User: Fold these one by one.
Assistant:
Number 1:
Amino acid sequence: MNYKGDKQLQLIAHIVMVFLSACALFPFLLLVGASFTEEKAAILNGFSIIPSKLGFGAYEYIFQEFATIGRAYLITIIVTIIGTVLSVSITTLMAYGLTKQVPGVKVLNFLLVFTMLFNGGLVPTYYVYTNLLHIQDTIWALIIPGLLMNAFNVILVKNYFRTSIPGELIESAKIDGAGEVKVLVRIVLPLSLPILATIGITSAISYWNDWTNGLYYLTNPKLFSIQTVLNKINENAQFLANNSDKVMANVDTSSLPTVTMRMAMAVLGILPIVCIYPFFQKFFIKGITIGAVKG
Amino acid sequence: MHKKMKLKVKTALPIYLMMLPGLIYLLFNNYIPIAGIFIAFKKLDWSKGIFGSQWTGFDNFTYLFKTKDAFIMTRNTVLYNVVFIILGIVCSVTVAILLNEIRGKLSKKLYQSLILLPYLMSMVVVSYLAYALLSNETGFINNTILKALGIQPISWYQEKNYWPVILTIVNIWKGVGFSSIVYLSTIVGISPEYYEAARLDGAGKWQQIKRITLPLLLPVIITLFILSIGGMFRSDFGLFYLVPRNSGSLYSVTQTIDTYVYRALMTQGNISMSSAAGVYQSVVGFILILAANGLVKKFDKESSLF
């Protein structure tokens, strides 16, 4: 028996996976370490996982500016909730409709798939949203463009409806006099919770992480989401000070802990996802697997 | 007959109504922009508006392809994709095979969760993580690693030679957890009987991987490989725009079609060049996807996109 090769492989697998896990985790630890470093020590010694000198200046400063950060959090949460609910609803309705043999369903199916193959590009899309629908500098700019429905998810849900829900069940409900809406709500949806959870989670993550819509369509800082604020701080470290609600006439902006504050902001941006990750991980991995089987 | 038609409409109407929100969205988010491609064939003059502007045929494209940018962004987009696709497959298949070998359920789950974590982060966050490592003054690499090795600090955001490597590492780092799950799900689906038979014949673990796992993974690898060729003209805007912190001295190695389209539109206000580059990307991308799908169909009918 080849116990030797087996043991060898186990050992190699563990060594490689420990190394890769460490690589995956290291930048996050560095970020956290950097955010808890005293500003002057960070400038002098650079960032490290264990702060060269512990300091909370970055977080103190951010909490002083809580109006800006808190609003950004609120915007992100609102956008994520409204966006996910709308997205899951529209996707489900579309997918359910496409499983029915109504006249023209083949054309509609084609119109959906075609969007995965060809697009108009940024310029026309930008003009549709700014000059035709005028959603720039409204909260809808963070919800509608690009994220509301995608063909991939519709196909995923459609295939689930086709394969996992017995047609006889729907037929018998119809014989009992249930209309389409009733069939969908009472029979199809309760049986489709796994797939709905899956597209709900991927959709929520896309909303939480989106920064491009803020970049394209927003100029009003009051509407910035966490990701957009992070992006603006990247461009200009003084973003928080410039958009402060407080009168800061006498404060010297050069004394602000800009170096560690950036890191602390990123930590705050990551924190919610890391906290709920253990709970949604199962669905998320399942979603990837389902998507891979029939992409 | 007439009654039957009426009945059909009556049953079909609720279905159409259900699809209405989705169809309206497709109209505004996808089809009006597709129709808007005509902008690329006009010389845009704001005093006359989009529709009143003069048609110029392919002038915008001829102009675009005369610039050095056209070559640079095409080269970068394609070459980065080639490297990402090949290295991505090698890394994620390796990780999937190793993950599958690990027996401890808990450790397997832990490894998987950790390497998947980067995939959940936005590119903005990734650019912060990269900055914590690469910052000229405070970055970990300059201050700790290079110092320990006695090497002078490097101005990472100014030196373009390093960026093809940096961007590749970031791309693999972020994506390997995701793509390895795809391969792992195929490996898990391989019938245990094959391995049992191999064991009875005295084959060791390495032999089993070489003779069973890899050959059975090959169809999936080839399919995903061909499909990714369909995306050769696309690039991750965030990776090429945010991670290099929009640094001008790096443009020659970080400019892709997507970053060009954005910069031409938003920073230079050059709508003609931006829209021409966008149409160039869409059309070539379309041809690539059709070709890739045709190839997949020949190879494995089940896996084709359409």
Number 2:
Amino acid sequence: MLSKRIIACLDVRNGVVVKGVQFEGLRSAGDPAALARRYNVEGIDELVILDVTATIEGRRALADTIGAVAREIFIPLTVGGGIRSEADADAAVEAGADKVSLNTAALETPELLTRLANRYGSQAVIVAIDAKRANGGYAVYARSGQAAASRDAVEWAREAESRGAGEILLTSIDRDGTRSGFDCEMTAAVSNAVSIPVIASGGAGGFDDFVDVFTRGAADAALAASIFHYAESAVHDLKVHLRAHGIPVRL
Amino acid sequence: MIALIDYGAGNLTSVRKALAALGAEHRTPAAPGELADARVIIVPGVGHFAATARLEAAWRAAILARVDAGCTLLGVCVGMQWLYEGSTEAPDVPGLGLLRGRCERLPDRDPSGARLKVPHVGWNALEPRRSSPLLDGIEPGSQVYFTHSYAAPVTEDTVAATEYGIRFAALVARGRVAGMQFHPEKSGTAGLRLLRNFLEGVPAQSDAVETDHRLSRRP
């Protein structure tokens, strides 16, 4: 049976993980490769490196970070944040990314999805959708949640799929950082509207939130950051919990 | 020498890194003539079966000639599908025909009628069908990473199958030809072990007497 995937997100700036850098027992706190190594040992299914850098120097550091992680960890690696062009995607792939995640650039230039899918295959193209509840629907936002895109998440997810995206990374702006649980209704609405996998993100607080999003939310995968950063063996414990609730996982 | 075939279907960085981690020296030949000293040929692949059409007649002939000469061949993902007679994904594009059968689209309903997403993306279990050195150190039920919409049928060549709506061939071997529908380079320690098992089987296999790696109907 296909397992539900647990994905850890590493927010990286200038080569350093900027969230959750102070947990104990990790020699080089803040080193993305060290954190990735720990997650890998704990049984994480995939990694996402989200670049929150804006400078040229930071971009170069990003390639080093991707390379350091990809050299020793052989699970799918996605790179997102600031991928605006084919050249940006090429640089990430060249450094060792298996998938690239596009958000604002895909909204502004949807054809970019098709070009990247033709070049690398749809499995390498993720569309990140940041959305919040509005007027009974789910309003999409660009530029890290700053700019309303005048699109509905369900409709945009369908279009992204038709243009060649291979997965949807759906983040609830309402829930992000609240630890109050995933937006299961929004996740289910998008997941049931497309045939490609949907990764739920935003709001993970406890293990039962993952049970909810894999059942009520119809998610194919769930992504979190801080819940994994602060507790040793959280990934393994989460999977044990999911299996006990009848959810297929890789243990 | 391991020859990694680049036919423009996706990126080879992950496969290269996995081979490097195993200490396996490899290169990417630019032309079919450069296959002459290859002992192992790996055909990777992601994306559409039609991409294999870029491996035009000269490549096909060179690869088949090397296999005839004792070279070991591994197809990964679409590269494995290419080992078969063809795929409904691109009916006009012939496969190599080294393995019997045609690849079909995965079903979008399971036997109970529940909806299944296609592509099949993520970690799923290997169910051994017969013993093989390829499975050394691999526990039954070990999970590997898949991303595909088409799959090959379970036949006598199937070493391990995987279930997603139907059972399909996940790991296959016939003589000097092997295939992995999953991505060993993305399947953690299990994936690296499977790749290592394949590479370790190479010398013994190339010393072996002529095996029936070709279907009898081929001239």
Number 3:
Amino acid sequence: MIAGGSAGSGSTSWRGRPPWGGRPSWPRRLGGLVLVVVPIVYLSYLFLYPLVSILWLSLTGTGRLDLSPFWQIVVRPSLRGIIWFSLWQAVVSTVLTLVLGLPAAYVFARYDFPGKSLARPMVTIPFVLPAVVVGSAFMALLGPTGPLGVDLRRTVWAILLAHAFYNYAVVVRTVGGLWAHLDPRLEEAARMLGAGRVRTFREVTLPLLRPAIAAAASIVFLFTFTSFGVILILGGLHYATIEVEIYRQTTSFLNLGLAAALAVVQMVGVTAILVLYSQYQERRSMELSLRPVRETSRRPRTRGEKTLVAGVLGFTAVFLGAPLVLLVERSFHTATGYGLTYYRALGSTRTGSLFVPPVEAIRNSLVFAVVATIIAVIVGMMAAAVIAYRSDWTARGLDVVLMLPLGTSAVTIGLGFIVALDWPWDLRTSALLIPLAHSLVAIPFVVRTSLPVLRSVRGRLREAAAVLGAPPSRVWREIDLPLVARSVLVGAGFAFAISLGEFGATSFIARPDTPTVPVAIFRLLGRPGALNLGQAMALSTILMALTAVAIGLIERFRLGEGGEF
Amino acid sequence: MKHDVLSNRRSDGRAAKRRPTPVVAAVLVLIATALVAVPASLAGCGSTTTTTAGGAATIAPAGAPTTTVTLGGEVVLMTHDSFAVSEGVLEEFTAQTGVKVRVLKSGDAGAMLNQAVLTKDHPLADVLYGVDNTFLSRALDAGIFEPYEPPGLASVPPEFQLDPSHRAAPIDYGDICVNYDKAAFTGLTKPPATLRDLTEPEYRSRLVVENPATSSPGLAFVLATIAEFGETGDYTWRDYWADLVKNDVLVVGGWEDAYYSAFSGGSGKGDRPLVVSYATSPVAEVVYAETPVTVAPTGIVAEGAFRQVEFAGVLAGAKNPEAARRFVDFLLSTRFQEDMPLQMFVYPANSEAAVPTEFATYAAVPERAAALDPAVIGANRDRWIEEWTSIVLP
């Protein structure tokens, strides 16, 4: 069952005191304390402390607290326009992503078709590609000679389509994950009682799916509200989000005060969404009878079903596949026909510069991704346990704060690391800072995937174990852990992919010369020359392959869990 | 029944065994300790080396002849992401001085400068390299540099020495100008010869430029137009840009997008034959061609270029100031200066450094490149960018 904080069998839910009664012994209390303290300390030190430091420093640059940048936001129409644009494009992008993604979520959840296990990891690939790479493919496809036949380059449509392209996987996996576990008999019963298809969907399926749709929508909104690369590259210049404006104010105008004020406005917006979402998740406590996937999906039978499945899969293949195929094609398409020139060039340091051999970039990326994933899994599971087992303000606060890094300005947090993390150890220029920064973005994914499962075992099973005398650590080890292990792996896969592709905060910190694959792609694209462009495409193809393999391996463990991602 | 039917049975079966209880707590404590201890040890390594470096550096008196003293330790170089150097060059510095070089990449030039300004009380590095003349006054006003006059300045033309108090030493320069796709101008239409030509009807919908608010070549090109047309008179730079807009100029966010997605020449995949880029881009097109070529596929409009000069300086509060000064000397040495052109596609500031043959063959040096006083740029850049935005992106 996917239920919120105080769901379960009412009277016995644990509110700070375990149902097995009595005063817990000190190891139990210590265990509970560590669970709470570690995620809080980790987030406070690596996220809140740098964030508050940079905001404070920026707003007190003149020697005293200066709040006039906030007034500027109120009076300058251009800044108000930017806030309005950030908001409406995020709402429209979210709706568009849901509209495009829900049919695919349904098909992936309810039908079996050949190649399904191959197709699913593919959906996640866009997630890791740098915007500058996707941008070049979109530019070619949305041009007047592209398949659409209209010139959508540098229009708001390009932004909306790119956002849907990037976040398709969030909807398919989050909503599809729950849909695959819904008992089809509920819908069959409604149909039998005379409800039409539309009414069945509206009155039976949709209410049941609402929690997952809300989860997906909140993530897509966070990503698109703070969108940066897509806006800068695909939107041309008539469009700017708050994040783009923070970047402009910081790096071109060196106006840190205004940048900080904008960052605060952005965070207020993000926090509002997160609080709404968190409250919503707590209120929805519906008794669902979840079914194993194998009972709910089947091969399409009728002609209509076959058409539906083929149509949806065809759309997905074109929508996600076309830009990706174009990039792969470009990596092989050399001046002298198709060949491996660019891949071979990757292996040799032609000009003997600090240009890292890609093997090294891949190794760096993998090492960072492994470290980030391990940290994200450890801290994320602790946090998930706290959020699932407690329903006090600590749990609610942690739930919101954990998600904040997803919606915080990368420029701001990057500069925050630089000003804050010289105490107690000077982490500012350590290579370790890169996976630490990645882990901040990855932790929410681990939490979101394991939380529903942890919550689903909160009820009778755990109570039964407790009544039979099992101490909490043992309940956790023997009941929760086996159940949650697989969905944690799913979260770990997302964490891994995020670290592989992340190019946010880490590009704004002073980092030692340990380039990752996205950094190497950027460096190649920083110079003219066909060989540089070709190598960038080749590296992007390698990045896609790495992601597909990583997610594919994770998918093998994804059997019958109802994670939110 | 709301539980996952799949796993119920398994956990029931396991519940029969007995295990010691505090294990989980102990493991969690261990993990927490590890989380705290690992950063400590890693950060510890870094700072110990630098402390030794600082200690060693004080032995050498500041004005000592630089070739005889071996310093040891480490010098940290903060630079932008475009920094590149051939293998073995920095190692030569280490061989000469015993000082190891650690390179910190810090984003684009603007991001780097922000980091240097924000950390000025506890600098991240000893030397900063890559601040250009459009940002120089900001860096100087913020007081991030400590004055140092490297002996190598004697061979640097005075026009590059823009800071009379020697806080920042010129290291390299390059010109920003319009590049054209040779293939698009084979017929009757000739490539434009001046900035003014770009407003003519035959170049309608041909030019792509970068936004000065997000791109440093974009800003340099706006500065070129300001230097060319001026702020006052019958036809100001604002009138010029209004005419460019009428002539359907395309504005994009960054150089990569302009060059690779909008420009049609060389490795570009777009449909516009004129782009704002570097005067050395045709050289890069030859050097990084897939198959050896003898003619560059692109050319430059030699009129109306803007000269960008990049500076390096010793950061105030550097841990290893003597090594930092020696490293600035090294940046101006012919060894580094002669390596730079093919690595970063810029020209050496040191006039004694030889320029590679590729540059002589494929690069044209713009006839007259505009230069504005960094203090004037510093005082006006925000206003100029705002004005540009209101004209071009209303």
